[in-house]
Design goal:
single chain; 309 residues; mainly alpha
Length: 309
């Protein structure tokens, strides 16, 4: 649910975004711990964004708890299998087309994981008051202002250097320390990339306004929950890139460019860097297998835990 209302579905690093996209929780330094704390952390984040009342907060936490139970029972074993395939593929030559297929698999997994959350998300959306949507808008505006200050630096050379450092940092999270030649490869690729930071902010603003407009229409008109689910599903496609804001050809060109760049960087990886990547993927794979084996969700449901719907 956090991702359903988040404004960061498209925020992926140019390097590593494709490799990391299969991991719903890849940003967590201790994946298992982060996963187990997911319901409480997700509930806290949403409450901070929307200023829930007591009833809404309880419903959100109940829905998140049920979703994590379902997700653990039905999805995480598949993630471990996908990571095993990714780890095997990454041992050999990798092409841009192959990276794009990994990316598409990640989108499919994300859409599959989202679907059971939509009924509860529709309930919560239907219960929102105008003041809560205004609260969300103010949160968005503050966050956007912070991002602009961080990323849209007035000096063009400083802006480019900051983007390079962010991209290198993301790549090094997978490969370990990059060489001077690899940094240069990334620097040159960023210079020629079809990605434009100013356009990204414009598209981000469009998605924000679409989200707020939909929530306000829902609050004003109170449509049936099935219609709200459809609206939220369309918003999800907007935010995760399946239905881009700009021309599809432009989005496809950027995706292909990023996939090719990821593949080019991988081809330059040393034996030590490939071991670093393999160890990271193997660690996540092991964590997902452990979570799948624990079956905490089954135990909770058997004890009378909440359902998603």
């Amino acid at each position: 649910m956090r991702r359903l209302l988040s404004l960061g579905w498209l925020r992926r690093g140019i390097i590593g975004g494709s490799l990391g996209a299969l991991l719903l929780l890849s940003g967590c330094s201790a994946l298992k711990l982060g996963y187990r704390q997911g319901p409480s952390l997700g509930g806290w984040w949403l409450d901070n964004q929307l200023d829930f009342d007591t009833r809404q907060s309880a419903r959100v936490r109940e829905a998140l708890q049920a979703w994590f139970h379902w997700h653990q029972r039905t999805q995480v074993a598949g993630y471990a299998q996908q990571l095993a395939r990714l780890r095997a593929d990454s041992e050999g030559a990798v092409t841009g087309a192959q990276v794009c297929r990994w990316n598409e698999t990640a989108r499919e997994l994300w859409a599959q994981a989202l679907e059971p959350l939509l009924p509860a998300a529709a309930e919560v959306a239907a219960s929102l008051l105008p003041a809560q949507i205004d609260h969300l808008e103010r949160k968005q505006m503050r966050h956007t202002a912070d991002l602009r200050e961080e990323m849209l630096l007035p000096d063009a050379s400083a802006r480019r250097q900051a983007m390079l450092e962010r991209t290198v940092k993301r790549a090094e999270s997978f490969y370990g320390r990059l060489s001077t030649a690899q940094r240069q490869l990334i620097d040159e690729a960023l210079s020629n990339s079809p990605f434009k930071l100013e356009e990204w902010f414009v598209e981000r603003d469009v998605r924000q306004r679409e989200l707020l407009a939909e929530l306000r229409q829902i609050a004003a008109n109170k449509p049936p929950l099935t219609q709200i689910e459809d609206r939220l599903r369309r918003l999800a496609r907007r935010f995760d890139g399946r239905d881009p804001v700009g021309p599809r050809e432009q989005a496809a060109a950027l995706t292909a460019y990023n996939c090719e760049l990821t593949a080019r960087l991988h081809q330059t990886a040393t034996a030590e860097q490939r071991r670093h990547l393999a160890q990271k993927l193997a660690g996540w794979e092991s964590d997902f297998r452990t979570l799948a084996a624990e079956r905490l969700g089954d135990a909770a449901v058997a004890a009378g835990g909440p359902s998603i719907r």
